[in-house]
Write a structure and sequence with these properties.
This protein is α/β, with parallel strands linked by helices. It is 54% helix and 14% strand. The chain has helices spanning 3-21, 24-40, 43-56, 62-85, 91-94, 103-111, 126-135, 152-165, 176-183, 215-223, 253-270, 277-293, 300-306, 320-326; strands at residues 98-101, 116-119, 140-143, 167-169, 187-190, 201-205, 208-212, 226-235, 239-246.
């Protein structure tokens, strides 16, 4: 069977499993069983994650890192199960299993009518964050992939829950919609740990040089919107802990990006199993590829195709200056 067929079959399996499980606790039990299997068959990727954990948590031991990686796979797999778990629910069905920290920052920001830019790192369950906000009546616009590399059924599953509760936008759209959204006092859900592209900001994050988007800084400079870092930690029984952290943005573009990155690092240190270590692996690999080829591709897919195995080596850590100099 082709990979696309296997992917569709896997999504159908999850859909059926969620229907049969019914309760959140049962859904999570099935998800945990699947995640244990995924973790065991992903030894190559686990080795890369483990080396990044060694570097970022130098005092950690092997047993601790093994526990973190097992938790990481549970989070990773549960994000897929949540697509189907939330499908036919409303906020009232789940409110006893959702906690909020800093919600007053979001409400106060909306009252100011200046627009809110939610910077959401790859942590916990980013998709369920904007879905739950939509359920609660918050006006959220989301930037998402079109998932054109996925089979039709899987792509539909990825996008349908967002379409139900939010306004979805795609990277190939004219970015003017973002200015209009903020100027109308709405919320933009933006992945702060995404690929930065040619106009991005170079910073050091998790001890390695990474290229992150400069769009958040540009949006803030143009609109004076409120900046909040938002995260959605998974909790037991298909629960969620949502947190909003206010940001006093520096005027400098790179310092702005660095402040957001430091908040992300703090989240990862506090809840290491909840951070998407795959994202760090990708950003680090991209930086090494960029330095090797001497340019920054606009298309992230092109950059991925140009990558070599050695670019992903966690021990290959270039200096920020070294990368910038390689591009001059």
């Amino acid at each position: 069977m082709k990979a696309s067929g296997l992917s569709s079959l896997y999504y159908r399996f999850i859909s059926l499993a969620v229907k049969l499980a019914k309760s959140g606790s049962n859904v999570e039990k099935i998800s945990n069983l699947v995640s244990a299997l995924r973790g065991k068959v992903s030894s190559g990727r686990n080795n890369l994650y483990n080396d990044h954990l060694k570097r970022f948590f130098p005092s950690s031991d092997e047993a601790w890192r093994k526990t973190i990686l097992a938790g990481y796979w549970r989070v990773h797999e549960r994000n897929l199960f949540a697509l189907f778990y939330l499908k036919n629910k409303i906020y009232k069905d789940m409110e006893t299993n959702i906690s909020w920290t800093g919600r007053d920052f979001l409400d106060e920001a909306l009252e100011s009518k200046k627009g809110v830019l939610l910077l959401v790192p790859h942590f916990g369950d980013e998709r369920s964050l904007h879905v739950i906000l939509g359920m609660e009546g918050y006006p959220v616009d989301v930037i998402t992939s079109r998932y054109t590399d996925m089979p039709k059924y899987a792509r539909k599953c990825r996008l349908s829950i967002g379409k139900k509760w939010n306004n979805l936008h795609f990277p190939d759209e004219n970015p003017r919609w973002m200015y209009r959204t903020l100027q109308s006092g709405r919320i933009i859900h933006y992945a702060s740990t995404a690929y930065g592209g040619p106009g991005g900001s170079w910073i050091t994050n998790f001890g390695v040089p990474v290229l992150v988007p400069s769009a958040p800084w540009k949006l803030w400079k143009r609109t004076d919107c409120t900046i909040l870092v938002a995260s959605c930690e998974q909790t037991s029984g298909m629960g969620f802990s949502i947190r909003f952290t206010p940001v006093d943005p520096p005027d400098d573009q790179n310092k702005f990006a660095d402040v957001i990155a430091k908040i992300t690092e703090k989240l990862a240190k506090e809840f290491p199993s909840q951070y998407e270590w795959k994202n760090l692996l990708i950003r680090h690999r991209e930086s090494n590829t960029i330095a090797r080829i001497g340019r920054i591709p606009t298309d992230e897919y092109e950059l991925e195709q140009l990558a070599k195995y050695e670019d992903a080596n966690p021990s290959k850590v270039l200096t920020l200056k070294g990368i910038v100099d390689s591009l001059s």
